[in-house]
């Protein structure tokens, strides 16, 4: 199985390393941070939890050069420097960091796990020339999961029984495909009363930004799909839109394969939702 390199050993990076290790679906995980002591300490802590949680995925710490040979590279958040440690390459300006990663990691796909990943994805494609299919942002998947959790509470079901897509350009203009959302296989509108649906609609904007554990869980699923070389599941990710809005990377429903983004799946939208999505994707004047 492939090795995953996580650049940034902050709260998000550490949570993601633990999540990937505990699920035992990747070969190994390497935490990379300018604060090498912090990265090494978190890696050791995760390894020590392995016998308790019964997983065997190895977790180590390393320098930025450790992205060489990785199957997937994740850009997370930098750790606060420990005493006596200064900033270094992994804490550099994000676009410069991605540029260095892209040069070292060959053709490995890059996942931007932070909530601000949309801007970084767009800039990486527009300014650095990174292939649109190679780099994605996983945060919209966490937003969709938060919405599923809210709907599940209102419908008194498991979140696993809820299907809903969030598109557009969160946090400014998220577009929820309410018309095609479902609960336990039935239309959402048949499971939630109008007042309950209105409550959920009002809370969408408050779900952003997702917390570090939700972001880590979303990034872990995206990484696993990339490592596995394909998945029938559709993920919601920030993907650069070269044709219509080159300055940003809107949230889109996509399939993933070993090289990155596979197909962009056209969502089923009502006429009013289609108008909202078109407006969200219009280039800023």
Give the topology:
Blueprint: E1 3-7, H1 11-23, E2 28-32, H2 36-53, E3 58-62, E4 72-75, H3 94-104, E5 110-112, H4 117-128, E6 135-137, H5 139-155, E7 162-163, E8 166-169, E9 173-176, E10 182-183, E11 186-187, H6 188-191, H7 194-203, H8 212-228, E12 235-238, E13 251-257, E14 260-265, H9 271-281
Parallel strand pairs: 1-2, 1-4, 2-3, 4-5, 5-6
Antiparallel strand pairs: 7-10, 8-9, 10-11, 12-13, 13-14
Descriptive notes:
With 285 residues, the protein is α/β, with parallel strands linked by helices. It has two domains: 106 residues, 3-Layer(aba) Sandwich (Rossmann fold); 147 residues, Alpha-Beta Complex (L-2-Hydroxyisocaproate Dehydrogenase, Chain A, domain 2). It is 40% helix and 20% strand. The strands form four sheets. The chain has a six-stranded parallel beta sheet, with helices on both faces. It has a three-stranded antiparallel beta sheet with strand order 7-10-11. The longest helix is centred in the N-terminal third of the chain and has 18 residues. It is globular.
Question: Main β-sheet, in a few words?
Answer: 6 strands, parallel
- What's the order of the H and E elements? EHEHEEHEHEHEEEEEHHHEEEH
Q: Report the end-to-end length measured between terminal Cα atoms.
A: 46 Å
- Average of pLDDT: 92
Quick one: CATH superfamily of the largest domain? Lactate dehydrogenase/glycoside hydrolase, family 4, C-terminal
* Outline type: globular
Uncertain segments of ≥5 residues (pLDDT<50)? none
Structural domains: how many = 2
Strand order in the sheet with the most strands:
3-2-1-4-5-6
Give me the number of helical elements: 9
Please give the share of residues in helix. Answer: 25-40%
How many E-type strands?
14
